[in-house]
Amino acid sequence: MVLVPRSNRIALYVTLNVAFLLALILGCGIGAQQNPRLGYLMLLFALCSSYVIDLDGYNGRYALLAVFLNMYWIYFGLQDLTDLYNGRSVQGYDGFLSPAETVILVGGVLLVLAYRVVVALRNPARGVVHSKDWSIRSALVVGLFLWLVGIGATYYWYFFVVTDKTVEGTEGIAKLSQYLTSGLVLAQMLLPIGIMLLAYAWRAARSRFLLVVIVAVISIQILFGFVVDIKGMAISGLSLVIVTIVLTDGRVPKLWVAAAALFIYVAFPVFQAYRAVVTGNIARTEVLSNLQATLDKVLLAKARVNTGHDRAQTFFERLSLKASVQMIVDGTSNGIPFQHGYTLTPVLSAFVPRILWTDKPDIPTGRIVNKVFHVTDQEETYISPSHLGELYWNFGWPGVFVGMTVIGALCGFVARRNLAECRTVTRLLLTVITVELVIHGFEGSMAGTYVVLLRSTAAVGLLHLVFAKLPVRGTSRETILSSSVRPPEKSDEMIPFPNLLT
To answer: Is the pTM of this model over 0.85?
Structure first.
């Protein structure tokens, strides 16, 4: 599916940037901000909208770049734009670009260049793709099994092992054997894979029963995310289903996206109130057994927590990462030492189980950031450095150049095997894992993210060897290009997954 003919994409890109420039001028008049970051915002938007020039479909070669650049804008630009309209002055450097803004822009450029180079290395005249896929029954049975194992391990971990987010709440880990700890961690990693397999089976079979199963899975994820106070867990089920639909069908499911937006708008303030009222005061098992009473308390406190001078952060404020990068860049230029790879060392031991290495390093990067940069006095507080900030904190500019290039190349490598050419379970899993961990996980610490990425990729490879049996003939590059000038055949609409029905 081609969204806009290639001849019109450059014009669209220019139009978007002209419109954004006018929006900035309007914002200056409305907000009268003392320190508008106009040059930075204009350059960042020009970078983050550049994907429209080559976007060849929602599941094509440049789809991952589009997702990453949209998130990059949310991470590093959206908050400054809202501050411009609200008249809130941006603290820090008053020049055209601050050092942190330069790091953000250069890092984004390196990401885009590396992605495009890797995608362009592919032979555009390559013939029809040959691969193997799962049957619908295998996807359904394995997906349900993995989800049940994952949700069971998640329940045990957060209700009986890590009972809350304080240091005392994590003491239960020390009471577990190395085998049980490793098993529980591994089992939780199977949860998102199970959801994706169920979503894939539903889209392949178009079964109403499977739709009910998907809705039930999403509801349980929301409930667990609420009780254990992890917003990412609550939204993950819904987001994974949306991404699966986009990648497999090549379209945006408007109803599902609207449901996700409504959930964020309605539920996020409730989650914020829950954290302020319940966390650390009431056991999670008690919350689950008295859910209605707990919810009543939270709703009564919602207005107090989410309004006023000391209100909790909004959804997009929590996603903003510019302040973390600013703190790290400024701090290292004022005497805070670089880490020289220390926070990244757990990645090197990703496949070494703790039962074989009892002294395996466990580096709480977020807590180290909090302590080293003196953010709060609470030792258990986690401050997200972002992958960009952590790369700079470890190696300075060399870390940004090498690290962002590698991240861009990794996404480009995954995008070369896109679902527009050949829809298979394995391609879907690898693509969604990349979106979830590399792109959405960009806000967190690198070691935890890439350890999970390596292990998840290995698990997908093993599943592929066992369950991918059906031969699949994908679509040649020429067919994809020619589809931009003719509508799809009716049979393509009636049978969205012909490879699963052979």
So the answer is: no
